[in-house]
Design goal:
Blueprint lengths: L20 E6 L6 H9 L4 E4 H5 L5 H11 L10 H20 L1 E6 L3 H9 L6 E7 L2 H13 L7 H9 E3 L6 E4 H11 L7 H15 L6 E6 L7 E4 L5 H12 L1
Parallel strand pairs: 1-3, 1-4, 2-3, 4-8
Antiparallel strand pairs: 5-7, 6-7
Length: 250
């Protein structure tokens, strides 16, 4: 699904590096972005994994830059430290992507990247792929990660509702609150102290989608959410997903 827009939709803008091809891969944690990155690496793209820069093997130089930045700040209320750090990470990863000529950035938090793209007038160089994975597959992927010692927690569902909401007409998928409760009960009880807390969490997640009953509902990408191409993995084989990606690259 194509969604054409200028990232900086108010000012438009064109990139000084218009020959650079950079993809920002957006999606919740455990949505399969690493697999997509691996696919792009076979097409000549350099994969830049957000986890490596936000807290992994590439974080130390960014932490040093951050500490140098904040030490000169005056004594004032300063509640945006995380925002500044995220923009430093985004800027570093964008630099690496530009250096590569063809880069793909794996991002769970796309906003700082979009901010830097706008500030540096790189709109024409970037395309955003939003990767949609349904609730059932997210639960499956989370449980698989946990068994391999990489637990991601239920914040994944908060990331989900940040991107999607109930649709009054047809949408990209259907969701059902009672089915989601069963998924949590069958797979993720260890995340809650009891069933009451689990049900409360489930209801709160669906309220953020705009749903307060147990009927089936279509969902869509939120109207103000920014992306160029929506890639849904629902009911698709790996080959079908790769074919869609190949068409997008053409």
């Amino acid at each position: 699904m194509i969604n054409q827009y200028k990232i900086n939709y108010q000012n438009g803008g064109s990139s000084k590096e218009s020959n650079i091809s950079i993809i920002l891969l957006d999606g919740t944690s455990s949505s399969g972005k690493t697999s997509i990155c691996n696919y792009f690496s076979t097409k000549g793209y350099k994969c830049l994994i957000g986890d490596d820069y936000f807290g992994g093997k590439h974080v130390k130089p960014i932490e040093s830059e951050y500490e140098n930045y904040i030490k000169d700040l005056s004594n004032e209320y300063f509640g945006k430290k995380s925002e500044i750090f995220r923009k430093l990470v985004a800027s570093t990863m964008i630099d690496k992507a530009i250096e590569s000529g063809n880069g793909i950035i794996d991002a769970v938090i796309p906003e700082p990247f979009i901010d830097v793209i706008n500030e540096r007038n790189l709109n024409d160089s970037f395309k955003i792929i939003l990767l949609y994975t349904n609730l059932k597959d997210l639960v499956r992927n989370m449980e698989s990660r946990r068994k391999h010692g990489d637990s991601r927690g239920i914040f994944v569902f908060k990331q989900f509702v940040k991107r999607y909401e109930k649709s009054s007409s047809e949408g990209i998928d259907t969701v059902n609150r009672s089915k989601f409760k069963k998924l949590l009960l069958d797979n993720l009880k260890y995340e809650f102290v009891g069933e009451e807390e689990l049900i409360k969490f489930c209801n709160e997640i669906f309220e953020k989608l705009g749903i307060t009953d147990d009927n089936d509902h279509y969902i869509k990408v939120r109207d103000d959410y920014k992306y160029n191409f929506l890639l849904s993995t629902v009911g698709k084989s790996k080959d079908e997903i790769n074919e869609e990606l190949s068409n997008f690259l053409q």
